[in-house]
Amino acid sequence: MNELFQPLTLRRLTIPNRIWMSPMMQFSSHPSGPETGAATDWHFQHFAARALGGAGLAMVEATAINPEGRSSRYDLGLWNDSQALSYRKIIRFLHQHGTSAGIQLVHAGRKAATGRPWEDGTGEESNWERVGPSAVPFGRLSAPKELTRAEIHALVQDFAHSAGRANLAGFDVLELHGAHGYLIHQFLSPASNQRTDEYGGSLGNRMRFAVEVVDAVRQQWPEEKPLFFRVSATDWLAGDTDDERLGWTRDESVLLAKELGDHGVDLLDVSTGGIVPDARIPVRPGYQVEFAEQIREEASIATAAVGLITDAHQAARIVSSGQADAVFLARELLRNPNWARQAAEHLGEPARYPHQYSRAFSRPVQAALSRP
Fold first, then answer.
1. Residue 35 in 3-state DSSP?
2. How far apart (Å, rounded) are the C-alpha atoms in residues 296 and 318?
3. Which of 182, 199, 353, 357 is the catalytic position?
4. Ordered DSSP codes for 60-105
5. β-strand 13-15 against 8-10: which pairing, if any?
6. What is the pLDDT confidence band of residue 130, given thresholds at 50, 70 and 90?
7. pLDDT in tens, 261-310
8. Residue 246's CB: how many other CB atoms inside 10 A?
């Protein structure tokens, strides 16, 4: 069997293949009322389609640990039990069709309350002053402020509480979002972290918040379930490019991976960028794979590659060559929910389709379709 379709076991979870659905924000939750932050019918069909399409793991989008940590009023949340229960129908369907269920936890930090990407900035999604007193509170559109130690400790506990709710919901995998300019990344990168206390300055200090979050989450997340961490392996600034601005580097990512592995992280989901809007990023097919490979080799930890992975043979090479243990697909799965099953066919592997669809793939039908 092609390694892309071999199962991967992390702790006591066996994921059926190495083609995974990346967390992609949908901005489709209830924006107000008692169901704020809960999963909706849109989320159900979004994940159900990719499960039927053969993804081995489906990762729920960046899900806020508290109301203030959302990017928009339409983000998913996991700061109360009713939100946790809203995911159970999705998880049950994924499990019925052989797909493992994961969820990514986030606090957006200085990127909070920025609105939905298809809005032009004039609507209520990006004008929190018009939300009204009955809505869940948001941070205002203003310059970010430095967190106090008490606020940092409270956020660590918010991550832990959300991890416990993820387990209550029934998720198999938990991922912490430490990339793309969100809060954990903001602590890691010298491009954003200007602190002069024990959370800023040296590499160990800048990693402190991430490690504290991992430790607190591991207390709430079961020992038998794997914990992932998404990292921006480079800011594409000084140290990795000719840009003179200070930034997080690939070598620091290796050191972070070693530290997080010692604290209970099982896999690094390796992306890049997001801390500044004008970094010069050499985007091309598979442009982030080399970072997943370096972290895997030098930190001796499992990695998943992500970023313009669109071709079945490309994905198979990444896994079979040892560049990464799995691939996360994002936009390609938006374009084609059946990518995983079609990749199996392209690579000569058996493609399992739901029994309800089997009539479309019977030998007589396939033979008829192949005739000129």
1. coil
2. 12
3. 182
4. EEEEESSGGG-SSTTS-B-SSHHHHHHTHHHHHHHHHTT-EEEEEE
5. antiparallel
6. very low
7. 999 999 999 999 999 999 999 999 999 999 999 999 999 999 999 999 99
8. 15
DSSP E strands in 16-171: the ranges are 19-21, 57-64, 100-106
Q: Please, are residues 237 and 226 in contact by the beta-carbon 8 Å criterion?
A: no
Give strand ranges (E) for 292-372: 302-306, 326-329
HSE on the CB side for 340, CA within 13 Å? 31
pTM attached to this predicted model: 0.92
Distance CA 368, CA 24 (A): 38
**CA distances in angstroms from 218 to 57, 151, 158, 164, listed in the order given:** 21, 20, 13, 9
User: Rounded CA gap, 231 and 258, in Å?
Assistant: 13
Burial of 46 (C-beta count, 10 Å sphere; 0-12/13-18/19+)? buried
Token reading at 187: 């602590």
Q: Which residue in the block uniquely carries the two structure tokens 């990749």?
A: 343
Answer for the pair 280, 241: CB distance below 8 angstroms, yes or no: yes
Half-sphere CA count of 80, side-chain side, radius 13 A: 10
Active site residue 353: no
Q: Which of 345, 307, 339, 342 is nearest to 323 (CA)?
A: 307
In one-letter notation, the amino acid at residue 305 is A
Beta-bridge mates of residue 101 = 58
pLDDT at residue 19 tops 70: yes
